[in-house]
Amino acid sequence: MSKLLLIDANSLIFRAYYATAYGNMMVSKSGQPTNALFGFTNMIIKALAMIQPTHVLFAFDAKAKTFRHEQYQDYKGTRKELPQELIDQFQLIRDFLDACAFPRYEIEGFEADDIIGSSTRRFDEQSIVILSSDKDLLQLINEQTSVVLMKKGLTETLTLDLDSLFETEGLKPYQVIEMKALMGDSADNIPGVPNVGEKTAKKLIETYQNIDVLYEHIDEIKGKLKENLVNYKDQAYLSKHLATIIHDIPLPFSLQELEYTPNYEEGARFLRLYDMNTLSQSLASLSLEKVSSSKTLQSVSQLASHKCPIVMFNQEVWLVGNDEEMVVIQTLNEELSTFLGSSQDKIFIDIKRAMHEASLFNVEIKTGDDALIIANLIDSSLTSLDKLKDYFQIPMDKKNMIQSDMQCMFEVAKAIDGWKAKLKENELEDVYLDIEKPLTRVLFSMEQLGIKVDENALKDIAQSTAERIEKLEQDIQSITNLPNLNLNSPKQLANYLFDDLKLPANKQRSTNIDVLESLMDKHPIIPLIIDYRKFQKFYSTYALGLQKYVSQSSRIHTEYSQVSTTTGRLSSNNPNLQNISVRNEDTIIIRRVFVPDDDQHVLLAADYSQIELRLLAHLSNETKMIEAFQEGIDIHTKTAMDIYHVDINEVTSAMRRAAKAVNFGIVYGISDFGLSEQLKIDRKEAAQFIQKYHQSFPRITAFMDDVIMSAQVQGYVSTLFKRRRMIHELSSPVYSVREFGKRAAMNAPIQGSAADLIKIAMIRLHQALESRQAKSKLILQVHDELVVHAAKDELEWLKPLMKDIMEHVIELSVPLEVSMSEGESWMEAK
């Protein structure tokens, strides 16, 4: 049977705060009070480990007043104003629950008790456990429902069911309400009957069972007690009503939505943000109880006598093993630290992540290969740990991710020797040893350093963007006269545009950007909607979105992946900085918030000029293009001259723009339709232009044809450095998939070679700075651009050094060209 755990979050938060608020208040390094978060998390970890639920719900009181306030104005009226330190932690705890992927709900007009009460009735076919420090919830106990009551501090609990409630309290569940009717509840300012305390109330309920029977026999009561009961009868019934938990409010969730599928990793990472490293490990330990292995080593040191061990840090635990045995380690103890820091050969799955975790304990991982990178080099479609598990046909179990991690490690241990042999066989060993392996340490250094953020500037951009969005909403509403139109709902927007305004629609009634741009001149509302979407995306992704990634030291530490793309390009996550391009007018302003640490430094940016076109010229051996680059002629002007057969001074801006579109689009297999849309010209004219391009640059056309043919025969294409991009799509029976495969085949040698080239430049620059013991450090890579946090007193030698390294990574038939600039922000260094 399923087991549903219903958690009275508010009561636990109050207990957590007041149990730890005396003496020294717990605060993080940034000054954020954390004692309530600490106490709450401790209680939750203990409860989850003890109860082992299959479903879970955290119920919160709504911030607004409830129906009880409407019925009794003084309800909870005697409560003191909450300390600001506690108020601040309510949202902190909500954010923690979200990080853990724990379902949480609050419903306006009702309390957490009502959500819990209604859940016990709606999901009454389950075994239900309620966790609270509030005795009011004892009224919900029944055959399926028990209550775990917090008793003392943060650890002592009492579990009550029907039998134990009667044994300990002498009450049946419904009599909990009858007791409150008589004795009231000072915590909630429920009045009850004056001068009726707990003992008197219990004696009356034991005798009469409930207040209805009590008032039927009121003449049996004597003296002042009878007088009070009679005079305050209405108050007793009001108190009973206030104390009764509602069972039938509409619930906005199903049992399936309460399924217990926690993200221990994100939860533990959240706790670390607030300096709770030990507690984060305790949270991760919850998953260990579900991990089992038929063969488990007793000690890491035993692995020293085995063949090359496999290591992974994931789900906040360390896994160490080989193809036969495995050890699971919750914390980085002395034995594991010694092992990780030793010179013994080791195979990691994601070594960079392990390096970051080890560095928190001042442990340096000096040696090790990365099986995930090796696998990706052999098969470029293996772009993540999940893809690797799919490759090994390991079933994904969200409830027990560590078990699937262990299975993956066993398989990697069996496969690694064959993979290494495959590297040599496919001439990929140099790509791994000379590029990817040393690059990992460069990226680790960059991630550790991060980049400073001007938080005030970021907030200013967020505010101005929010104001711009609000103004656009007002302008749009003034046109539509529909105050309830949800601009973020494609369906509602489609109904307005295509039904109300009768604008032309495609079959899908799509409102994507392509459709909206095609309607630009059809109605004045269209440009406003396009701007609204643009600024909404900018706001959510950058202006507001970046704020959650700013660390306590006002830095952003993006994470780079060497395996997430099929072409070899690096990707950036948490947050993604790769999309903040200097060439994108919509996002360039956000570069203003990235700044140097102090006035002794600047940001120095170096950007390859037209690197993909230069590689295309070299790989295709296209004479006209090579000559243009060698002579320093603008390549787009040269292309326009050859296609239109005009002199240089006859090239118009329109000609150059068309030539530029084809130059950059040709390696992506640009079509006549795509070019016509981009240049806003007739499709026939676009087709003629592409045809003229192929006639003017026949070797580029031949190169593209050869690449596709080679991919069809071999199943892959290669970069200048022999990196392979598998092209499985070419064998698809689906035409559109095969066409995509052709475009990927044409693009991969160019984009992949550019990626390899800049990776080599990063390695050489990092090594050069280290050898000089320079204060300047490489901190960012965005496609063809490198950014250095540069000491001003090192610029004189740094700039020529950086330019020389980047321009001489490899000798091509065309020169590589790098433009450089520095500034007080990333935006200035453009």
Low-confidence stretches: 290-297
N/C terminus separation: 62 Å
Identify the CATH architecture of the domain at 3-165 and 245-258. Answer: 3-Layer(aba) Sandwich
Which CATH top level class of the domain at 3-165 and 245-258 fits?
A: Alpha Beta
Radius of gyration: 33 Å
Q: So what's the oligomer here? A: single chain
| CATH topology term of the domain at 3-165 and 245-258 | Rossmann fold
Biggest sheet strand line-up: 3-2-1-4-5-6
Q: Biggest sheet: strands, sense, closure?
A: 6 strands, mixed
User: What class would the helix/strand composition place it in?
Assistant: alpha/beta
Number of helices: 32
What integer is the average pLDDT? 89
Estimate the strand proportion. Answer: 5-15%
Helix content: 40-55%
The count of β-strands is 22
Shape: elongated
CATH superfamily of the domain at 3-165 and 245-258: 5'-nuclease
Q: In a few lines, what is going on in this structure?
A:
49% of the residues lie in helices and 12% in strands. It is α/β, with parallel strands linked by helices.
Can you walk me through this structure?
With 830 residues, this protein is of the alpha/beta class. Among the domains are: 3-165 and 245-258, 5'-nuclease (Rossmann fold); 290-426, 2-Layer Sandwich (Nucleotidyltransferase, domain 5); 462-553, Taq DNA Polymerase, Chain T, domain 4, CATH 1.20.1060; 620-748, 5' to 3' exonuclease, C-terminal subdomain (DNA polymerase, domain 1, Orthogonal Bundle), CATH 1.10.150.20. It contains 32 helices and 22 strands. The strands form 6 sheets. Strands 3-2-1-4-5-6 form a 6-stranded mixed beta sheet. A hairpin with a 2-residue loop joins strand 20 (777-782) and strand 21 (785-791). The two termini are 62 Å apart. Residues 290-297 have low confidence and may be disordered.
